[in-house]
Amino acid sequence: MAYDFDLFVIGGGSAGVRCARISAGHGARVGIAEERFWGGTCVNVGCVPKKIMVNAAEYGMWAEDAAAFGWSVTTEGHDWAKLAQARDAEVARLSSIYDKLLQGAGATIFNARATLVDAHTIQVGDQRVTAERIVIATGGQAVRPDIQGAEIGLISDDLFTLPELPKRVVVVGGGYIALEFACILKGLGAEVDVMYRAALPLRGFDEDIRQALVEAMTAQGIRLNANAAPTSLARVDGQVIVTAADNMMREADAVFFCTGRKPYTAKLGLEAAGVAVDKDGAIIVDDDHRTSQPHIYAIGDVIDRVNLTPMATAVGHALADTLFGNKPRRASYRNVPTAVFTSPPIGTVGLSEAEAAAEGPVDIYVTRFTPMRHTISRRQGRRTLMKLIVCQRTDKVLGAHMIGEDAAEIMQGIGIAVVMGATKADFDRTIGIHPTAAEEFVTLRTRTREAGVKAAAE
Ligand code: NDP
């Protein structure tokens, strides 16, 4: 049977656009549909506008610190509308690039919602098309917790349409988005409370980093409320009243729910096409990203594995090469470097101490220091922490973690070494760049402690 397309991609975010563009470049006849905005969450309501706001928030701090270096700087406060305009212009520019890239590669673009009619048929806007293969890359959506008054709370998308800075904010959640939002809003001048249900934020990250982040955020005046999950929200006289267990109450102008995201699979026609999902709505795939229908694939946040833009693009690219480029390959989900753009930022790659210690004995190297910039500025809460986790048996560096200025930038390079399987001896024979914070990663000579010895004995 002749199909209209060799490949139809549903969703124009990081994963879908990359897969469509590379497949078209390999000569496939590709259609791609996007119902909301090209570039998806990352470009429009995620990484890109968020990072612009992180930069904006930190400029205030740098302006204050300049005095210690001899500058006389006076600021007249922050202009939210001006920032919003600059941010939105950049987002629009990037979003249009995605569109152009696809057109340049020869893909057929549909600015419409697409749903599956059956295993090879897609309803896209008012058209019906067929495809030999289909890739589902519809991403995820922010979720509100199931509590009374939840509809009063905002979700992460809403940060980018707020007309002004709310003066008092409660951020609910202890993950990437909650902590980044808290630092942005505090840096731009809001009073911020974070409420999270665990004892420490950033579940899954290395414990030393989590502790150091709590200290850093507390030092800049963000109120961190551990073991606190809101039970209800109510609007009273224009304020939002947030109630949590133990009679805890906060008054705020805005409440952000940063309590996770769920795969965007509702009403997509998955059942009609015979595509299975798990209990959270994530599409079930094998190691080649095949769904329960062997010619239908799913990539990106819709499979809820490693929900990061570079992972999504890597997987989209690998799938296109496999299907149409005669280069079968898989992108690895191991040792994915990542950053949390808190202030200061976190960069990390590989295993946490707890994960590594569960597998066997490891040597732990930790250093903590005030970076040169802040020995002069005397700003509190900006100490840097760097940590290496080294396998005692192989000498391989299993994990590298950092919180401090430029952590995200530094960790990209360390990530290459860890992915290549570098040993501690390789780190040690690398000459440092002086004077930098990064050089500490290659001058850690004294073991702080060992861990996982018990795990190995068992
Ligand atoms: P996360 O899964 O990171 O965090 C969700 C947070 O909400 C956790 O602290 C979780 O607590 C808490 N939570 C969940 N349900 C409830 C509830 N009912 N009541 C109270 N608290 C709740 O999700 P995010 O939304 O922050 O981020 C989504 C994904 O986006 C991330 O996993 C990441 O992959 C990606 N991302 C990456 C960024 C980057 O690379 N810098 C930036 C932003 C997002 P608990 O831990 O106890 O379950």
Automatic annotation (TrEMBL):
Domain (FAD/NAD(P)-binding): give its ranges: 5-314
Question: How the cofactor binds, per note?
Answer: Binds 1 FAD per subunit.
Q: Which GO terms describe its biological process?
A: cell redox homeostasis; cellular response to oxidative stress; glutathione metabolic process
Q: Which cofactor does it need?
A: FAD
Per UniProt, NAD(+) binds at 173-180, 260
Active site as annotated:
434
What GO molecular functions are on record for this protein?
flavin adenine dinucleotide binding; glutathione-disulfide reductase (NADPH) activity
Q: Does the keyword NAD apply?
A: yes
- What is the disulfide pattern of this chain? 42-47
Q: Kindly state one GO CC term assigned in the UniProt record.
A: cytosol
Enzyme class, broadest EC rank? oxidoreductase
Similarity comment text for this entry: Belongs to the class-I pyridine nucleotide-disulfide oxidoreductase family.
Supply the name of the protein. Glutathione-disulfide reductase
The species this protein was found in: Falsiroseomonas algicola
Gene coding for it: gorA
